């Protein structure tokens, strides 16, 4: 993404220079080819980009490089056996498949791809790949005649037709002394190719403003009213929108989270600060996603000095905070607006009522309490719009955010198209 068009804020934090692999869970599959020695450097580079790496090695791979080497470099135990009870108890093949944001098999041998094409699940790497719903990329590496063989070509084409990605192979000198196609791409090329999987481009050229985190409403100089929001869902939404190619501005309440890559962040404290920051910048935005858990009330007066605990009882008078989302949707040129609704009961009824009351294009509702929702790693969302809804099943907040952003992009582009069609007919 090139220079950000958002105006610079006084309390601007920074444009993070982290890349799209930062924070990603990468499952690296290593199969039995001489290029397996490059896996060590690949892991190092993936981690340098901020990814968390777990390695699955086939029996053949262990003839070329030891699990101990890859364990030391990845900082995680290396997984080798499908039928190892203790390994399965610690993190089984299904848990590994769910954990991964992407699987990269490098090197991918002709034999591995043949077995994958058949849908075999008789070793750990095949089983994990079969069970994985995240993107899978293969970095083939083999002798040029093996690569050119129609059997290999047929398998590779079938795997690509099923949605798997292929990185390489490159042309060049091979370990066997021949020259031709079959060399595994270099680790830096694989890292770049893998990063591109997370950049969908569905919101390229659009500007998205996201609010996240709680707000703090001061009682006196040392005390405040707030809530349990960790900001993780909002930050995940900002990151997912940025991965989708959007220019993203994140207005965040006080949280201890790193700014997602390429996202411009503005820190605020109170609901009033958040409203001021949003209204100052919403003008140029195409999409507004309000994820923040804004405090509904603030103390009517903020004590200038720390309140003393002399009295047995203290009464705080609270006054309503502005509804930022409703203020934005009431603007003349309101952006496509998405709200969140955290509910403890009657999810659909309350969410739909909020969607209508706040004139939202979409609302994402989640149940809170019992370890789900606020301050939890996972979440589930039921998304409603006028005339439709979709359930996004419980999963990690990052995966959920990507699904939500894909849905928002779909509805946003749908609305956009309708306007164009109407105008075209109108002028005919
Ligand atoms: O009414 P309720 O607080 O449940 O609405 C939740 C939605 O409205 C969220 O999207 C939240 O970010 C937004 N909101 C807001 N300003 C407020 C309260 C809620 O933007 N003062």
User: For the report, how would you describe the main beta sheet?
Assistant: 9 strands, mixed
The neighbouring-strand order within the major sheet is 1-13-12-9-14-17-18-19-20
Class computed from helices, strands and strand pairing: alpha/beta
Helix content: 25-40%
Please tell me what the overall shape is.
elongated
- Runs in which pLDDT lies below 50 for 5 or more consecutive residues are 1-18, 418-428
**Distance between the terminal alpha carbons, to the nearest Å?**
38 Å
How many distinct domains?
A: 2
Radius of gyration: 25 Å
Strand-residue fraction?
A: 15-25%
CATH architecture label of the largest domain: 3-Layer(aba) Sandwich
CATH class of the largest domain: Alpha Beta
CATH-defined topology of the largest domain: Rossmann fold
What name goes with the CATH superfamily of the largest domain?
Answer: CoaB-like
Total number of beta strands = 20
Average pLDDT over all residues? 89
Small-molecule binders here are: cytidine-5'-monophosphate
Count up the helices: 15
């Amino acid at each position: 993404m090139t220079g950000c068009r958002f105006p610079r804020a006084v309390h601007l934090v920074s444009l993070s220079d982290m890349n799209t692999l930062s924070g990603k869970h990468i499952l690296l599959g290593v199969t039995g080819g001489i290029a397996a020695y490059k896996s060590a450097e690949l892991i190092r580079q993936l981690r340098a980009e901020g990814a968390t790496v777990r390695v699955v090695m086939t029996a053949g791979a262990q003839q070329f490089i030891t699990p101990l080497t890859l364990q030391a470099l990845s900082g995680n135990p290396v997984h080798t056996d499908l039928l190892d009870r203790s390994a399965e108890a610690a993190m089984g093949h299904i848990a590994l498949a769910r954990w991964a944001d992407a699987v990269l098999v490098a090197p991918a041998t002709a034999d591995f791809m043949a077995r994958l094409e058949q849908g075999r699940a008789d070793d750990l790497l095949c089983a994990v790949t079969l069970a994985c719903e995240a993107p899978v990329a293969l970095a083939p590496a083999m002798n040029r005649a093996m690569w050119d063989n129609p059997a290999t070509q047929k398998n590779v084409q079938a795997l690509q037709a099923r949605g798997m990605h292929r990185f390489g192979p490159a042309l060049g000198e091979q370990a066997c002394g021949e020259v031709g196609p079959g060399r595994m791409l270099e680790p830096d090329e694989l890292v770049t190719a893998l990063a591109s999987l997370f950049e969908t481009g569905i919101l390229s050229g659009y500007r998205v403003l996201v609010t996240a985190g709680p707000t703090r409403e001061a009682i006196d100089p040392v005390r405040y009213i707030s809530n349990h929001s960790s900001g993780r869902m909002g930050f995940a939404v900002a990151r997912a929108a940025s991965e989708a190619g959007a220019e993203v501005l994140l207005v965040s309440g006080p949280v201890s989270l790193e700014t997602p890559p390429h996202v411009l962040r503005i820190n605020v404290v109170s609901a009033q600060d958040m409203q001021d920051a949003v209204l100052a910048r919403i003008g140029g935005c195409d999409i507004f996603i309000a994820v923040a858990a804004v405090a509904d009330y603030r103390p009517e007066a903020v004590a200038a000095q720390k309140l003393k605990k002399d009295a047995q009882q203290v009464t705080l008078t609270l006054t309503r905070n502005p509804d930022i989302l409703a203020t934005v949707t009431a603007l003349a040129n309101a952006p496509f607006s998405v709200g969140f609704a955290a509910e403890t009961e009657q999810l659909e009824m309350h969410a739909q009522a909020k969607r209508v009351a706040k004139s939202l294009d979409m609302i994402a509702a989640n149940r809170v309490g019992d370890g789900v929702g606020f301050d939890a790693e996972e979440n589930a969302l039921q998304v409603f719009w006028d005339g439709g809804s979709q359930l996004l099943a419980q999963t990690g907040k990052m995966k959920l955010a990507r699904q939500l952003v894909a849905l928002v992009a779909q509805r946003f582009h749908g609305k956009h198209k309708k306007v164009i069609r109407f105008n075209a007919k109108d002028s005919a």
